[in-house]
Amino acid sequence: VSAAELRLLICMNESHGATILKVAKQYPALKLGYHLRALSADLLEISLDITKGFDWNTGVHGSSEAFWMWVEDREGVEIIQ
């Protein structure tokens, strides 16, 4: 979405659209990639590639941003530790 398109959606001028777009791009989100490898019948190696999917702003996010990552079993019943 461009600033001009956003301006039309919110019925404001283009500079307001640009500001809203800039702030929206700072909303914390992650890009995830993974690789799975069976080590045995009961053991699975999971490798995660995690990168930020947002524009970092120290004034907003400070020096770090916390995220929780967990793995559930196939039924989604138990969190695997």
TrEMBL record:
Task: Read off the Pfam families from this record.
Answer: Sec63
Family matches, as InterPro entries: C2_domain_sf, Sec63-dom
Q: Which Gene3D superfamilies does the record match to this protein?
A: C2 domain
Top-rank taxon, per record: Eukaryota
Span of domain SEC63: 25-80
Write the protein's name. Answer: SEC63 domain-containing protein
- Organism of this sequence: Sphaerobolus stellatus (strain SS14)
